[in-house]
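re: ur question from earlier - yeah i can do the single chain one, its not a big deal. heres the input i used so u can compare w yours
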Amino acid sequence: MVEHDAMMQQQFKRRQKCHKSRTTPERLAIARDYQTSVRPSLSALCSYFVINTLDGFKMASKALAHFAIYPRHRMHFIFGANTDVGKSIVRVSANLPAPKLNCQTLFSWNTPASPHLASRWENLPVSNNEVITALSASLGDIIDYDASTENQPSESITTTTIVETAGGALSPSSSSPLNELTLGSHWGWSTQADLYSSFNIPVVFVGDAKLGGISVTLSSLEALWNRGYNVDAVVFIDGESSEQGECNGVSDAVRFGEGNAEALREYVMMQRSKQEKIGGKSIPYIAEDAIVLLPSLPAMPIPLDEWYERNSESFMNIHHLLNEKWCTYFS
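and the output i got, formated as tokens:
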């Protein structure tokens, strides 16, 4: 059951009213939940979740100023190597430790297509500035709520906000020629990675666990690193396998997800070791335990309840890992 706080409901209603007056459609994706942090000194009572969100950069800068004031407010983007790699699964997994959840959505379209196409076909464009404005306002609401609970009898309050992006790291935003408000002087769409880069929020990245996914995963990570993102964790959801026959009576099955995760570990460690020896700029560091492999999902239409329950320890480990990583930004 979804539980709502009266104050947050009022804030969300105000924001939704504002969004409706500016653009259609709107689905604000903020979820609120209460969690327990890995550090005793950071007992997390409160956490939020922003999903599938698509003003301008001044508001983003204002929000970032708040973030620096509230180091216990953990924030992460969820980017993926591609569509259908499991971003939503990872997003839900990251919040399973929380007993309470409140979810809304900022923007959505009925057409199952890329935002830049769906917004044009439905004649419901959303500019880059509108996206950034809406997300900044939503984050601001969360921060305002945090400030209002500062004096509660608690050791400390930790808030978690997760923003799930659309498609892959370089998938299009919803901007189109029909926008009245655009980013800069041109109408053309921006990539997801470019659209959100001004927020300086670290990333949970969902890799591609299929055959050929190593190249797609590395290309997407390079795109994020080149735009200044910190990638705190990479998660693969195992899927495809290839039966290679039997050798001495033992079936030889290649699990691409497991292989892709191990390949990424080897690549990151090798590049870092090589650059330490010869000097020069090192690629951004991803700890070995921050490259996580989750088991394959059950076949449709089997519900995911049992899968989530069976892997609850892994989800808690991811939650703790991200909390620990966030703390290092303020140490």
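Residues 256-278 form the longest helix (23 residues). not sure if urs matches, ping me
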